[in-house]
C-alpha cells in the first residue's frame, strides 16, 4: 500500500486506528506466503505476548529475491562501493544476489547449520555481510549480527547469550587509510566459547590468518563449489528471524528478538511510504548492517520493494570530507539516508567539499538515530538537498524494528527537528509522571505506544521477564520507548531524547551501567559514575567520574587504563570523552548516586546543581567542581 497525498494519509491513518487488523491484513496480502495466516493478531501487553499472522508460512528471502526475478531479475539489487575510491565497485542483479545467497546458504547447511540455529555474523561492510544475513534467513537460521567495531569481550558475551553454533567473519577490514584485524578479535572472543562448531572466514584483505583445524573454514575456497540454488525454508510467521543486541539501563546488552512475518510486512511498508522510491531510483543508507538501521533499511526494506540499495565499505571523511557527495554523484543516488552525527561532522568541514559535486540526482533526504538540531537540519536541507528535497526525520528503535514516527517524503510536510506524525498503524501516546495519557496538544511527556504493530520486539532472547520489565512494566498496558517527546499544536512529535540511563553517542546506544562495569575493572578503580553530556558532533558524549586509590599518583596512567578497560570490554566506540578522577561521588544518605548533579556538572552548569542538602557528604561536590572548573 502506498500513500500519496496528505488527505489520503489522514484517511488511511484513521482507518488504521479504527480497524487495525483489516489495515495490516490488506498490506500483508501483497507478499508471497507459502500458506495464508489464520489470525491477523493476538496480543496482550501484560505478559507481553504479541503474535501477528499466526498460521501463516513464508520465507522473507523469497519476498526479497525470488519474487522479483521474473520482472526484475536483471535489475541491480546491490551496488557496493569499496573503501578505496580507486578500487572497483561491485554490482549484483537480483538474479546474481539470489545465486550468491543460495551458495552461502548451501555452505551453512553443509557445515551443519539447521533451522533455528543461531549464527553470529561479525563482518565489515562488504557484500558478503548482506549475503550472509540473507543466507541465514533462507535456511531458517537466526542471524545475530555484531557490529565489527565491538571488542572481543562483546562478541563473546553475544555469542554466549545466543549460544551461536557458527560465526561468520573475515581476515580483516578496511577503514579509511587503515586496515584492521578482524579474525584475531574473533579468535580471542571464542576462547571462552568452546561450543562454537565452525568459523567461516572471508578473505577481504588477502591476509594470512591462523586457521584452527577442524573449526575454521575459508569461505573463498569453498563457496564456488556450492550450488546456486536452495529451496527457501518454510517459516512460521512468528518464528525468529534475528536477534540484535542493544544496550539498556542495566549492565548487560539484551538480545532483541524479531520474527519473520511481522518484520517483513512492516519494513517493506515503511520503506515504501517513508522514502517514496520510484522504479530505477538509487537508494543509499549509510548505516552499518551491524545496527538495526542497516538490517531494516539497507537490507530488508529496499530488497522487499525491489529497489536498488547501495552499500559503502568506507568512512565519510576518507580520502576527504567529500566522499559521501562523490559517491552520490558517481551513482546518481536519489534517496540518501544518514545520521545527524555524520551531518554535523561533515558540516564542520564547511561547504567546500560539497561544492565539488552537483548532487542534482538527490530527491529525498533522511535522518535517523538521534534528535537532529535545527542548525544541522538547515545545513542538510540547503547545502545537500539544495532546498528542493524533503527531509524525513525517522524516529524508531531497535525494538520497534522499523520507522514509527516520521514524515513521508513529498506526502506529509517536514518540520525542522521534528519527526512529525505517526505512520498509519502506529498509535503513540504521551504519558505524564503519573502514567496518565495526556490528550491535548502543545505538551511534553513520556513516549509510549498503545497498540501493537507487526515488527515490534517479541522478547529479549532467553529472558522474557527482562522484556516485560524493561518495556511493559513502567506503564501498564503500554510499550514504553524510554524516550521523552513533545507534541506541538498540530500534533507533530519532537523527540527530546532518552529519559532512562542510556546515552546516545553518535546514534549508538550505551547503558551507563555497562560503561561503569567496564571502568570498574581497571586497576585502582573503586567506583565510577557515567553520564551523558551535549557533544557538538556526537550528540552526546560520555563523561566518567571515577574514584581511584591515590588519585594524585599516576593520574595520566589511571586515565589511560580506564580508557583501555572500556575499549576492551565494549569497543572504541564507547571510549569516554572525559574522565575525571574524584575522591567521592555525590550520594544520598541511602547510598544512591545523584546523577542529576553529575549531569549538571558535565553540562558545565555549575550554578544550577539544585538541592545538594540531602547529600551524605556535600563536600564531594566541591571536590569535583574544583577538578572540572
Ligand atoms: C533511540 C533508539 C532507530 C535506528 C537507530 C537507533 C533515538 C532514533 C531518532 C530520531 C530523535 C531518535 C531515540 C531512540 N532516536 N531516531 N529521528 N529523532 N531520536 O536505534 O540504537 O535502537 O536507538 O535512538 O532515543 O530511543 P537504537
Oligomer: single chain
Query: At the third CATH level, what is the topology name of the largest domain?
Result: Rossmann fold
Give the rounded overall mean pLDDT: 97
Distance between the termini: 57 Å
What integer value in Å does the Rg equal? Answer: 24 Å
Number of domains: 3
Task: Write structural notes for this entry.
With about 625 residues, this protein is an alpha/beta fold. It has three domains: about 1-60 and about 255-500, ANL, N-terminal domain (Rossmann fold, 3-Layer(aba) Sandwich); about 95-235, Rossmann fold (3-Layer(aba) Sandwich); about 505-629, ANL, C-terminal domain (GMP Synthetase, Chain A, domain 3, 2-Layer Sandwich), CATH 3.30.300. It contains 19 helices and 30 strands. The strands form eight sheets. The chain has an eight-stranded mixed β-sheet, with helices on both faces. Strand 14 and strand 15 (about 255-260) form a beta hairpin. Helix 4 crosses helix 5, helix 9 packs across helix 10 and helix 12 packs across helix 14 (about 375-385). The protein is globular and about 75 Å long. About 50% of the residues are buried. 5'-O-[(S)-butoxy(hydroxy)phosphoryl]adenosine binds near residues 419, 481 and 495.
Amino acid at each position: 500500500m502506498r500513500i500519496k497525498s496528505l488527505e489520503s494519509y489522514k484517511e488511511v491513518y484513521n482507518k488504521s486506528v479504527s480497524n487495525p487488523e483489516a489495515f495490516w491484513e490488506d498490506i500483508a496480502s501483497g507478499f508471497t506466503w507459502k500458506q495464508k495466516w489464520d489470525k491477523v493478531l493476538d496480543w496482550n501487553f501484560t505478559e507481553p505476548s504479541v503474535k501477528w499472522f499466526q498460521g501463516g508460512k513464508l520465507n522473507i528471502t523469497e519476498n526479497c529475491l525470488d519474487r522479483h526475478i521474473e520482472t526484475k531479475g536483471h535489475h541491480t539489487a546491490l551496488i557496493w562501493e569499496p573503501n578505496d575510491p580507486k578500487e572497483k565497485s561491485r554490482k549484483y542483479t537480483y538474479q546474481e544476489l539470489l545465486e550468491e545467497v543460495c551458495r552461502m546458504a548451501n555452505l551453512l547447511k553443509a557445515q551443519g547449520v539447521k533451522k533455528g540455529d543461531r549464527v553470529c555474523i561479525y563482518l565489515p561492510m562488504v557484500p558478503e555481510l548482506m549475503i550472509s544475513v540473507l543466507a541465514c534467513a533462507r535456511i531458517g537460521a537466526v542471524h545475530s549480527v555484531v557490529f565489527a567495531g565491538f571488542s572481543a569481550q562483546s562478541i563473546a558475551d553475544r555469542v554466549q547469550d545466543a549460544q551461536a553454533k557458527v560465526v561468520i567473519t573475515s581476515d580483516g577490514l578496511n577503514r579509511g587509510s587503515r586496515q584492521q584485524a578482524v579474525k584475531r578479535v574473533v579468535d580471542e572472543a571464542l576462547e571462552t566459547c568452546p561450543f562454537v562448531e565452525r568459523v567461516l572466514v572471508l578473505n577481504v584483505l588477502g591476509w594470512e590468518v591462523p586457521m584452527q583445524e577442524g573449526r575454521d573454514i575459508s569461505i573463498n575456497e569453498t563457496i564456488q563449489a556450492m550450488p546456486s540454488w536452495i529451496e527457501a525454508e518454510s517459516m512460521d510467521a512468528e518464528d525468529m528471524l534475528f536477534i540484535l543486541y542493544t544496550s539498556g539501563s542495566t549492565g548487560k546488552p539484551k538480545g532483541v528478538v524479531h520474527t519473520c512475518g511481522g518484520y517483513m510486512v512492516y519494513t517493506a511498508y515503511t520503506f515504501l511510504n517513508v522514502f517514496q522510491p520510484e522504479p530505477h531510483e538509487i537508494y543509499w543508507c549509510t548505516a552499518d548492517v551491524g545496527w538495526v538501521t542497516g538490517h531494516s533499511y539497507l537490507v530488508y526494506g529496499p530488497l522487499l520493494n525491489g529497489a536498488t540499495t547501495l552499500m559503502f565499505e568506507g568512512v565519510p571523511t576518507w580520502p576527504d570530507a567529500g566522499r559521501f557527495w562523490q559517491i552520490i554523484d558517481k551513482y546518481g543516488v536519489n534517496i540518501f539516508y544518514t545520521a545527524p552525527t555524520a551531518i554535523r561532522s561533515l558540516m564542520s568541514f564547511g561547504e567546500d567539499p560539497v561544492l565539488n559535486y552537483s548532487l542534482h540526482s538527490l530527491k529525498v533526504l533522511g535522518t535517523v538515530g538521534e534528535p537532529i538540531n535545527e542548525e544541522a537540519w538547515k545545513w542538510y536541507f540547503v547545502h545537500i538537498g539544495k532546498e528542493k528535497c524533503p527531509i524525513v526525520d525517522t524516529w524508531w528503535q531497535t525494538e520497534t524494528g522499523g520507522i514509527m514516527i516520521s514524515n513521508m517524503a513529498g506526502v506529509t510536510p517536514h518540520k525542522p527537528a521534528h519527526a512529525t506524525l505517526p505512520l498509519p498503524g502506529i498509535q503513540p501516546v504521551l504519558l505524564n509522571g503519573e502514567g496518565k495519557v495526556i490528550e491535548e496538544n502543545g505538551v511534553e511527556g513520556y513516549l509510549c505506544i498503545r497498540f501493537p504493530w507487526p515488527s515490534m520486539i517479541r522478547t529479549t532472547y532467553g529472558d522474557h521477564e527482562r522484556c516485560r520489565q524493561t518495556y511493559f512494566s513502567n506503564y501498564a498496558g503500554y510499550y514504553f520507548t524510554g524516550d521523552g517527546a513533545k507534541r506541538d499544536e498540530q500534533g507533530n512529535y519532537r523527540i527530546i531524547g532518552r529519559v532512562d540511563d542510556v546515552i546516545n553517542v553518535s546514534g549508538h546506544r550505551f547503558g551507563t551501567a555497562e560503561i561503569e562495569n567496564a571502568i570498574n575493572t581497571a586497576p585502582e578503580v573503586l567506583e565510577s559514575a557515567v553520564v551523558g553530556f551535549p557533544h557538538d558532533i556526537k550528540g552526546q558524549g560520555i563523561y566518567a567520574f571515577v574514584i581511584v586509590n591515590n588519585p594524585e599518583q599516576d593520574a595520566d596512567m589511571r586515565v589511560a587504563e580506564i580508557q583501555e578497560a572500556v575499549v576492551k570490554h565494549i569497543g572504541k566506540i564507547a571510549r569516554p570523552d572525559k574522565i575525571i578522577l574524584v575522591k567521592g561521588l555525590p550520594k544520598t544518605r541511602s547510598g544512591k548516586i545523584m546523577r542529576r548533579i553529575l549531569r549538571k556538572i558535565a553540562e558545565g552548569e555549575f550554578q544550577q546543581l539544585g538541592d545538594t542538602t540531602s547529600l551524605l557528604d556535600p563536600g564531594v561536590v566541591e571536590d569535583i567542581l574544583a577538578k572540572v572548573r
